[in-house]
Amino acid sequence: MYGFPTGEMYQGTQAQKDKLERQYLRKEEFMRENNLPAWNGEFGPVYEPETAPNAEEINQARCEMLGQQLSVYDKYQVPWSIWLYKDIGVQGMVYTNPQSKWNRTIQPFLEKKKKYRLDAWGVHRSEEAEAALNPLIKWIDEICPQAKHAYPGPWDTERHLLRAVVQTFLSEQFSDEFAEQFRGMDYKELDELAHSFHFSECIQRGSLNKILMAHAPV
């Protein structure tokens, strides 16, 4: 969780480095015991937008955490593929320009998703959402303590509620509102939206790509 908005800040301490390695070894235990190959095809921190408070400091810390993670893969000779190549500014190697037609169109909706914690990935804290959820979480844990141990193991009651109620049921109800942002656009405008994702229009995440290049040689 060092690489996510709700996780602890990575500071490169020995304790944090040891934890990264322990977590990797725990996940690869079955493969090592059975002499099977391992491959990580989905990993990578979430980055703060440049306009966020302390964005530069936070993103640098998350990049350094990623570099340490890749050092663990180097040590155990684990091939990998970063997640992901291109997105709208969350964690891609390249991302759409904040001033692009696409980003400007959907930005108000992105703020709403952040406010209500509608995203399952790269979720941020929200006082409003937590004020509604926390009493229900507390009630469930009181009347059914075993609920927090439901599969999958790393999840607690909050994670299950977020997935089932907020990120599935509630977020689905906003789908029509998202689509309404594009109502009335002509082909020229729709083409401009799509062109926002053209490589020539995107921004490269230099700090991330520099680290990936350093660990990419076989």
Q: Pairing-aware structural class of the strands and helices?
A: mainly alpha
- Our measurement of the CA-to-CA distance between the termini, rounded to an integer number of angstroms, reads 27 Å
Give the strand tally. 3
Percent of sequence in beta strands: under 5%
Sheet with the most strands?
3 strands, mixed
Shape: globular
Using the CA coordinates, give the radius of gyration.
Answer: 20 Å
Strand adjacency order, main sheet: 1-2-3
Query: Residue-averaged pLDDT, rounded?
Result: 93
Low-confidence stretches: none
The proportion of residues forming helix, as a percent range, comes to 40-55%
Q: Helix count?
A: 9
Order of helices and strands: HHHEEHHHHHEH
Query: How many discrete domains?
Result: 2
Write structural notes for this entry:
The chain has 218 residues and is an all-alpha fold. The protein has 2 domains: 1-95 and 204-218, no CATH class; 97-201, no CATH class. It contains 9 helices and 3 strands, in the order αααββαααααβα. It has helices at residues 14-27, 29-33, 55-75, 101-116, 127-143, 157-173, 175-180, 187-195, 206-215, and strands spanning 86-87, 94-95, 203-204. Strands 1-2-3 form a 3-stranded mixed sheet, with no helix packed on it. α1 crosses α3 (55-75), α3 (55-75) packs parallel to α9 and α5 (127-143) crosses α6 (157-173). The model has no long low-confidence stretch (mean pLDDT 93).
